Amino acid sequence: MPGKRLDVRAASSSVPWRNAQPTTPSTAPTEAEVAVEPSSATNSSSTPTTIQQPKIKDLVGYTAVLSIKAVNKQEDRVLGIVKEVIGASESGLGHPLLKVVSQAPITNIFTATTNTGTPTSDCNTALVPTTTTDTSLPLFQVEHLIPLVRKIVPRIDPGTKRLLVDPPAGLLDLGKRRAVLQHLKIELTQFITRQSSTKGRSTSEGARSNEESSLNDQYSAVENSGDNGVRSIFRGILNMPLRRELEASGRKDLVKLIQSIGGFIEVAQDLGFRPVRRPPGYWEDEEALDRELSLFVAANWVRFEEDSDTEELESAVFSDPQQSIDALQEEEEEEEISAEISDKDGNEDEKEINNERFFSQFQQQQQQRQPQEEEKLRAKTGNEVYWYNQVTRKVRWSAPVLPQTLALDDQGSTLLTDSPEDRAMPSRSALCAAGRYDLHQAIVAAGGYAQVSEDLDRYPAWPPSRHLRSFRTLAAELRDFVEETGLPKDRMPTRGELLSMGRSDVHQAITKLGGYSTVARKLRLKSQRKKRGEWRNIEATAVEVRKFAEGKIGKERDHNGFTAGGGGGGSACLRMPTHEELRAAGRHDLRHALQQHGSAEVARVAGLEVTRKTGLGNGKQRQRRLKEIIDAVRQNDEAATTEGVVLGKEN
Question: In this structure, is residue 364 part of a structural domain?
């Protein structure tokens, strides 16, 4: 009867796939194992008929239709047309792949409608180009890779050239995601171009925080736009716009698309854009840290024009030094070099060598073009042009070579190359002045500036101080420091005293020359740092604490003109210094000694007055203190009893 289904597995077998028991669920069908179903125009006899099976390569041009189960028991929906069949050996998966292609507006990719007009969010909803009447919307090509296995492609009808697809959950989302990314790349690139041309990504309106503002100031996403397309300060690197920037510009549609496929960070990584907010674990990658340092150093090149009357800064942020070079000509030359290298060296093991050769050749071509471009600039402005780097403090009369992003393969792997002379390690002050606290914290977490500089093979950008490398020069600096601060001339200044006065250079020089004790011994100065075990003697501790108390009284007398207690007995008014006073004075050694012996005991030995209650202490001190308290209580009780007896007798 018409429309009766015949499943022919081979010329001598009519067992359908659904009744077969394959040994492996993902086994790919051979050319003789394609399950077919005849159309109504074929033989209507009830007798089983052998139908000629199509070969796998002949499936190109077939229409892929989703099964009823895949569209929530609705009628079949057209998925697309098979444009290519990828063989099992080429796919590397053990089975062929069908490349099914369709076109639809971007608004229909994740919001397809059903027959009733209600939207559906099913992950396997097909794309129907005719569901929209708006012909102004651009159509985007959606490619789906469908595995040619029995569970996913259960039926093939050679009569109508249709194949039934029952995709698992999430399979069609992969193709839809690629289409959305293609649309976002076009829209976001145009958005960045408009933002750069209108306001230069200015942050004067308070659109970004301080850290984000500094990032935009250093890494201008787009320097120029025109007939040659978008050109960035670093070729191939664009800044990912923030959500509030898109919403402020009325592009909430882009925000919804970005959120539907993973969010801003994930989309930025897929598109090769530079996100302002880094994903978790980003700074733990050594390559990412090295990349950020290269971009930071390169972003600090500033172009100046040397005028006879004034020296004017042409741009606050480094503008493209080769803006007069035709972008299309640069791209053609790069493609020629890349093609030449790939022809000569096709071995994958030599990719790194090829990239180095590519960068060196590209750098040579830039250097050859620079004199011509500089002559054009001089002829146009009449001034000499030079470049200055605010990190390395280098001056160049030719345009610097900026970092280049090179594609290593077709899978999205890239390599950032920079000039060897720009592989500098920025200083902490340079990063903090630019608001790059994220980069500073990453360096500190990786071991510090010196360690990161050594690990990444970067030379320090800050010049080493050679002024205080000799003991003679250091002694003169210490002598001047003591005279300015009024400290004792025969005593070595402490670390806290030097740092509080902003003399970190003297502190670092003392550290490099052996430390405070070594320098004090060589310069014959008294050091406050005692020898090991000296604070174990309570008498020595008491003497040092009394000296501190006398020095404090002396300072109060000099400041107020009289002693704390008034009269002539100033020494009788000495009181025990508190831990807070010792901490403020930087006498942590005395604080440690008081913790060993107890403040009350040291005050008793030193003859100092305790103005506040002290703890009971530990060990013998606690027992002694408890005994004193008990004795005092007994004496009070005995005195009270004696007084009562005397009063009774009198009465």
Answer: yes
Residue 142: name the closest of 167, 173, 187, 118 by CA. Answer: 173
- Same domain? For 245 and 312 the reply is no
Buried-exposed string 576-593: b where 16+ CB fall within 10 A, e elsewhere: bbeeeebeebebebbbeb
Give the distance between the most distant pair of CA atoms in the chain. 144
> Half-sphere exposure of 414 toward its Cβ, with a 13 Å CA cutoff?
17
Domain of residue 429, residue span: 297-435
Which uninterrupted H or E stretch holds 443? helix 437-445
Collect all residues with Cβ–Cβ distance below 8 Å to 622 and sequence separation of at least 6: 616
544 lies in the same domain as 596: yes
Q: What is the pLDDT of residue 486?
A: 84
Report how far apart, in Å, the C-alpha atoms of 29 and of each of 32, 105, 164 are.
Answer: 8, 34, 15
Of 169, 189, 223, the residue that ends a domain is 169
Domains held by the chain: number? 5
Whole-number Cα distances in Å, 352 to 60, 119, 401, 404, 442:
39, 50, 19, 14, 27
3-state secondary structure 308-341: CCCEEECCCCCCCCCCCCCHHHHHHHHHHHHHHH
Is there a domain that residue 450 lies in?
no
CA 554-479-583 angle, to 5 degrees, is: 45
Distance of CA 217 to the CA centre of its chain: 17
- Taking alpha carbons only, the member of 626, 106, 214 closest to residue 438 is 214
Q: pLDDT per residue over 150-181, tens digit each? A: 888 888 888 888 888 888 887 877 877 888 88
559 with 486, same domain: the answer is no
Pairing outcome for strands 229-231 and 224-226? antiparallel
Same domain, residue pair 225 and 331: no
Considering the domain architecture, whether residues 409 and 268 belong to the same structural domain is answered as no
Q: What is the bridge-based pairing of β-strands 63-66 and 162-165?
A: parallel
What does the alpha-carbon distance between residue 97 and residue 90 come to, in Å, rounded to a whole number? 9
Please work out, in degrees rounded to the nearest 5, the angle formed at the alpha carbon of residue 501 by the alpha carbons of 499 and 504: 40
Q: For residue 256, list its beta bridge partners.
A: none
Q: Are residues 139 and 223 in the same domain?
A: no
pLDDT given at position 413: 64
Are the beta carbons of 424 and 392 closer than 8 angstroms?
yes
Q: What type of residue sits at position 512?
A: K
Cβ atoms of 5 and 37 within 8 Å: the answer is yes
**Token pair of 156, please?**
């093939």
Residue 447 domain-assigned (yes or no): no
Same domain for 430 and 483, yes or no, is no
Token pair 């509030």: residue = 244
The helix/strand/coil state of 275 is coil
| pTM (two decimals) | 0.40
Q: Distance (Å, rounded) from C-alpha 17 to C-alpha 151?
A: 9
- Label residues 417-447 b or e (16+ Cβ within 10 Å = b): bbbeebbbbbeeebbeebbbebbbebbeebe
In this structure, which amino acid lies at residue 356? E
- Do 84 and 31 fall into the same domain? yes
Instruction: Note whether residue 253 is domain-resident.
Output: yes
End-of-domain residue from the set 226, 248, 277: 277
Summarised one tens digit per residue, pLDDT across range 25-50 is 344 444 334 444 544 444 444 444 43
